[in-house]
Amino acid sequence: MIKKAMIMAAGAGTRLNPLTANIPKPMVPVVNIPIIELILRHLQKFGINDVIANTHYCAEAILDAFGGKNHLGVNFSYVHEKALSGTAGGLKVCESFFEQGETFIAISGDALTNVNIEELYKKHKESGAIASMALKEVPMEEVDQFGVVVIDETSNILEFQEKPKQEEAKSNLVNTGIYIFETAIFNYIPENTFYDFAKNVFPAIMKNKEIFCGFKINDYWNDIGTLDQYKSSSFEILNGMADLQMPYEESKQGWLADSSKIADSVSIEKKIVVGENSVIEDNVALKGNNVIGSNCIIKSGAQIKDSILWDNIVIEENVILDGCIIASSVNIKPDVRLEKDSIVPHGLIITKPEDLYKETISV
After folding, report:
1. What does the alpha-carbon distance between residue 326 and residue 313 come to, in Å, rounded to a whole number?
2. Which end of the chain is more exposed for a tag (fewer CB within 10 A), N or C?
């Protein structure tokens, strides 16, 4: 079975701006847990406790959380790339972490998944492949957002299409960024060179007629590539679609930290998550699904619908939020009504509705 993993965690996550202005994408919280921690916890379920990551953008956030001794008990190593070296180049800088002849998993640092790693490993070994990838079926109208993969009846990869138009797509199976590799993969990646899996490594493997497979998974997967995907995945988890580890014990209302305080008069429509030391005062209406971080205060009369609030946020009286994502350390003053689906960057103080148009971004 697999003992070691590599997490690709060097990207800047520009499509999640402005949320990633201060933190790397793998540290973006999903149901109050950083994405990379959800990945690490999932790896642990399959006995994988030795993990390396390549880091670059805002690397200190990842190192502060998981470097050295960490709360998960994972042996977490990292290589800091001064300059990005591509998806395959990032794997190459981690080569010394793996023993010759070892089978390992590599996973994108923005992948939310409950993929059955044991089953994927078994299929990979039975195939004799040098490399295998997990593939997920998506609706045809979404194929233009992903790398599409064409396979034959024995799961051998025949062709790739990068974000094809719907009418040109030859498949609706997409690359999840979850790979099982043999260490022979490193023979295809030169040192100190910007190198990409899709553009460089995979075509070379196919040209050499190496066994290269794609296996369809029925497990949950979402790559958190866009703000819309980030929001939808958060609510999918709340609605039981992902079966990922939650941060707190479940109650009738959702997942509430023991130190959170919710007034009896708060109305809760669907499942919610509320973090440590957060306070929700009288007559607040929580409509739809909502994720509320730690050390937040939501004052009387506020109405929050289908929104995600990070940590250290103050929502004052009678504020109205609908489909919003609020980054950490924001203060929204009384009676402000934000435009639907607004994204509020870290550290803002919004005192009047017109501040919305100067300071926030809509999806």
Report:
1. 8
2. N
Domain holding 150, by residue range, is: 4-238
Q: Quick one: pLDDT at residue 46?
A: 97
Interval 49-59: pLDDT, tens: 999 999 999 99
Q: Is the pLDDT of residue 187 over 80?
A: yes
- Average pLDDT over every residue of 217-221: 95
* CATH classification at residue 264: 2.160.10.10
What are the tokens at 56? 């670059």
pTM (2 d.p.)? 0.94
Neighbours of 267 (CB within 10 A): 10
Percent of the chain with pLDDT over 90: 86
Same domain, 219 and 292: no
Domain CATH code at residue 190? 3.90.550.10
